[in-house]
Design brief:
Layout (H helix, E strand, L loop, with lengths): L6 E4 L16 H7 L4 E5 L4 E7 L5 E4 L3 E3 L6 H8 L9 E8 L14 E9 L4 E2 L2 H11 L6 E5 L7 H7 L12 E6 L4 E2 L2 E2 L2 E4 L3 H13 L5 H19 L1 H5 L6 H20 L10 H13 L1
Helix pairs in contact: 5-6, 5-8, 6-8
Length: 296
């Protein structure tokens, strides 16, 4: 499926774009949520999609930044057809992650492209639906929701360590989840912004680093790859817990992932130079060599 598709126009100005701030950027939201009923869902690593109906009742579809033309090979339009959304006419914008084969790393292990609904915007009233109303819309349209972690009577995760630990989740297939998104059951605003934030699983970057080393670093050895992964874990923990460890805020969460990945790759490459373990035989090189052997 084609995630991008042919552009019809800009993303509609009357629908908010999907974007969840990290909890460290919005401490005032975490504080405002304390003691309030809340729900948490798993953050899905896919591609953003939006479907809405215009004033004439015609269904329209968008990627993250653009409205897309109706094409049979475009993923978001395939989902419109799959769930027969064109037969409806609602004053709503449905926002979801497009997931499946060929999209990001397909962490959910799906066999076909699908969606996971996480927002419903009431266009005529310019507001998001509360959790119960969003769930009712999903059920009436037969749309799968993002996986629910918890519906709680009172949010009590007060500090960074508790939130990070809370985000250490897995998907139903056992793959490491990207993190969680936390919101109040009834929509709230803080300083004019919707109360909603994400907490990223710290193990996501080291796992991606293993994948990167195995596929793209020609001289990586198993020993070097695992040493690099260990260094990446140390780096991401140190950066995110620098305030607790050394009393300094450090470089901040935004840079923790690229910085820890850089550490992992650099240390992994250096460790691969040591004469320990079997000689490197990276996956891409192995595949290319096999094709060359067949050709010869």
């Amino acid at each position: 499926a084609n995630i991008g598709g042919d552009i019809r126009g800009r993303f509609p100005a009357f629908i908010p774009k999907t974007d969840e701030p990290n909890f460290q950027r919005v401490p005032e939201m975490v504080e405002a949520l304390l003691g309030e009923p809340f729900y948490a869902t798993l953050k899905v690593d896919g591609s953003s999609g939006t479907v809405f109906w215009d004033e004439d009742g015609v269904v329209r579809a968008c990627s993250r930044n653009f409205e897309l033309k109706d094409r049979p090979d475009t993923a978001v339009w395939q989902l419109v057809q799959k769930y027969d959304l064109a037969r409806h006419s609602l004053p709503l914008a449905l926002q979801f992650e497009i997931v499946g084969p060929g999209i990001q790393k397909n962490r959910l292990g799906l066999k076909e492209v699908d969606l996971r609904l996480f927002n419903v915007w009431r266009i005529d009233q310019r507001r998001y639906l509360d959790f119960d109303d969003m769930l009712a819309v999903a059920q009436s349209l037969g749309l799968p929701m993002v996986e629910l972690v918890e519906v709680g009577a009172s949010f009590e995760l007060k500090d960074d360590e508790a939130l990070r630990h809370y985000a250490e989740r897995t998907y139903a297939n056992g793959a490491t989840a990207e993190g969680v998104v936390i919101r109040p059951l009834k929509e709230m605003q803080v300083n004019g912004e919707r109360l909603s934030f994400k907490v990223i699983n710290l193990l996501t970057t080291p796992l991606f680093g293993l994948f990167f080393m195995a596929l793209f670093v020609r001289r990586a050895t198993p020993f070097g790859t695992w040493v690099g992964a260990a260094a990446g874990v140390v780096a991401v923990v140190f950066i995110n817990y620098s305030r607790e460890l050394i009393g300094s805020p450090g470089i901040g969460f935004i840079w923790s992932m690229p910085a820890s990945l850089a550490v992992q790759v650099c240390v992994g490459c250096a460790a691969s130079l040591l004469p320990i373990g079997p000689e490197a035989q990276p996956l891409l090189t192995r595949g290319i060599d096999s094709l060359e052997n067949v050709a010869s």
